[in-house]
């Protein structure tokens, strides 16, 4: 279930970008970043880059995460749905546990199918949303 959630968050990250301020001058490879500038890290772009994730980047493949998050991509820091490092989302463990619990409870009680009218159309604003809502049909078990 963790691999499915991770792949879903890769394709549809909750936040499309991460914003950071450079506190002191720092060199990143050949790039010199001056202090007090703002950076925007486009999560949605990073998560959809074939140079990082492979040519099948747009396919839903939970097996990418079979060996963990750090080995899922060519760059171990490429997976950013909750940010990274000391400024990462403090709720990551709670969010993952809650998602697993809710999914387990739903799957114990229901089978589900996509609505015949479903059209895949993610809508990106500050977050990624389904443009036409979540179109699934639940069937009690």
From TrEMBL:
<dbReference type="Pfam" id="PF00067">
    <property type="entry name" value="p450"/>
</dbReference>
<dbReference type="GO" id="GO:0005506">
    <property type="term" value="F:iron ion binding"/>
</dbReference>
<dbReference type="InterPro" id="IPR002401">
    <property type="entry name" value="Cyt_P450_E_grp-I"/>
</dbReference>
<dbReference type="InterPro" id="IPR050665">
    <property type="entry name" value="Cytochrome_P450_Monooxygen"/>
</dbReference>
<feature type="binding site" description="axial binding residue">
    <location>
        <position position="89"/>
    </location>
    <ligand>
        <name>heme</name>
    </ligand>
</feature>
<keyword id="KW-0560">Oxidoreductase</keyword>
<keyword id="KW-0503">Monooxygenase</keyword>
<dbReference type="InterPro" id="IPR017972">
    <property type="entry name" value="Cyt_P450_CS"/>
</dbReference>
<keyword id="KW-0812">Transmembrane</keyword>
<dbReference type="GO" id="GO:0020037">
    <property type="term" value="F:heme binding"/>
</dbReference>
<keyword id="KW-0479">Metal-binding</keyword>
<protein>
    <recommendedName>
        <fullName>Cytochrome P450</fullName>
    </recommendedName>
</protein>
<dbReference type="GO" id="GO:0016020">
    <property type="term" value="C:membrane"/>
</dbReference>
<dbReference type="GO" id="GO:0004497">
    <property type="term" value="F:monooxygenase activity"/>
</dbReference>
<dbReference type="GO" id="GO:0044550">
    <property type="term" value="P:secondary metabolite biosynthetic process"/>
</dbReference>
<dbReference type="GO" id="GO:0016705">
    <property type="term" value="F:oxidoreductase activity, acting on paired donors, with incorporation or reduction of molecular oxygen"/>
</dbReference>
<keyword id="KW-0408">Iron</keyword>
<comment type="similarity">
    <text>Belongs to the cytochrome P450 family.</text>
</comment>
<keyword id="KW-1133">Transmembrane helix</keyword>
<keyword id="KW-0349">Heme</keyword>
<keyword id="KW-0472">Membrane</keyword>
<dbReference type="InterPro" id="IPR001128">
    <property type="entry name" value="Cyt_P450"/>
</dbReference>
<dbReference type="InterPro" id="IPR036396">
    <property type="entry name" value="Cyt_P450_sf"/>
</dbReference>
